[in-house]
Design goal:
Blueprint: H1 4-15, H2 26-37, E1 48-52, E2 57-61, H3 64-71, H4 81-89, E3 91-95, H5 99-109, E4 115-119, H6 143-154, E5 159-163, H7 171-175, E6 184-187, H8 192-204, E7 209-215, E8 218-224, H9 241-245, H10 253-264, H11 270-276, H12 290-308, E9 316-320, H13 322-326, H14 333-354
Parallel strand pairs: 3-4, 3-6, 4-5, 6-7
Antiparallel strand pairs: 1-2, 7-8, 8-9
Helix pairs in contact: 5-6, 5-12
């Protein structure tokens, strides 16, 4: 594929935005531009070729900095030039690639994190396709491979390191040190023990952590600024730290449910609460929607960009609630009363099943 002439004309229009295409000066200025910067339009030796072996396709592109400038041209000045440079220079780790893949694509799509480390031990299953943007051609492939291919097709210059999950064995290489250290961790793993370990590892290295939790069609975003608060309790102190250190490799259903309840808290929707009580009986796992995964990707990329560009983004939990904004009946007295009824039923059921375990 060779559309470099069209790409160069697009670059010209970015550099000369005041020249309308139908202006009498447009073609004259464009010919001079080609003559002075692009060998009179002979582009055979210009730029680079990016080869995608999984597609058996080569694409003719400009050099990396020109490519970045064009790809982020529509960001200006919603993201300033200085912010874009800091955002692009960042090194970000993403652990867990269901919701995490949505975050990666939005992060890279907005021109952030030119250096990525991605970790996930799983392969793509058919049940993932309600929320992961992939195809049936990817079934059975590692999620890391699918994610890397999608990222490279968006930005062929992207630096990516792939890890088969985040663990004690891989942590040193995943987090790095000094100039090679992560600036931010996006944590989206399903394993509660890995979630705890990731935070202990991030806190010891003063790396901030952000996480989005599906909440029906909504999202809860947790920000833990270990770069600013190196003594901050994990998960905002929702669970005893010693208990988190002692988590066994294999958790029972009761341990998983009570821990998930403690970590997520009381802010989940009524349907999510009822679903949580049925995991392991009527439901195989925590339910997740594609709407929430897309919303989480946007929320995580936004949160990451604020942290990476030095804007205020304090630790805490933030609710991105579509129901509250778009459901016209959400605040009606009967809807509020029904949520309160479900809350009481949920609390009673949790106590009946598990006692007062945190």
């Amino acid at each position: 594929m060779d559309t470099l002439p069209d790409i160069i004309e697009e670059l010209f229009r970015v550099e000369f935005p005041f020249l309308a295409v139908d202006s009498p000066h447009y073609q004259v200025t464009y010919r001079r531009y080609l003559a002075s910067k692009w060998n009179d339009g002979d582009l055979r030796r210009a730029g680079v070729w990016a080869y995608f072996p999984w597609r058996h396709t080569a694409v003719h592109l400009p050099d990396e900095m020109t490519y970045l400038r064009l790809r982020t041209a529509r960001n200006r000045d919603l993201i300033t030039h200085q912010e874009q440079q800091r955002y692009h220079a960042a090194q970000v780790g993403v652990a867990g690639l269901s919701v995490g893949m949505s975050a990666v694509m939005t992060l890279v799509g907005t021109g952030g994190a030119s250096r990525l480390r991605i970790a996930d031990p799983d392969t793509l299953a058919l049940t993932n396709l309600n929320r992961v943007t992939a195809s049936v051609c990817h079934l059975g492939l590692p999620k890391t491979a699918i994610c890397a291919e999608r990222v490279w097709e968006l930005n062929p210059f992207q630096h990516i390191e792939v890890f088969n999950g985040l663990s004690e064995r891989t942590a040193e290489d995943f987090f790095g040190r000094g100039a090679n250290g992560l600036d931010l961790l996006i944590e989206e793993t399903d394993d509660l023990r890995v979630k705890a370990f990731a935070r202990f590892a991030a806190r010891s290295r003063k790396v901030p952590v952000v996480m989005a939790t599906d909440n029906g069609d909504n999202v809860l975003v947790d920000v833990e600024r270990y770069d600013l608060e190196p003594e901050r309790p994990l998960f905002h102190g929702a669970v005893d730290q010693d208990r988190l250190r002692r988590l066994p490799e294999q958790l029972t259903d009761a341990e998983r449910i009570t821990l998930a309840d403690a970590l997520v808290g009381s802010e989940v929707t009524a349907r999510m609460k009822l679903s949580l009580l049925q995991v392991g009986t009527r439901l195989v796992s925590w339910p997740q929607l594609g709407t929430a995964a897309g919303l989480a990707g946007a929320a995580l990329a936004y949160t990451a960009r604020r942290i990476l560009t030095g804007h205020p983004m304090p630790s805490g939990r933030y609710a991105v609630d579509l129901d509250a904004v778009l459901d016209v009946g959400h605040h009606a007295p009967q809807a509020v009363a029904e949520r309160e009824r479900v809350d009481a039923e949920y609390t009673a059921s949790m106590r009946a099943l598990f006692g007062d375990a945190p």
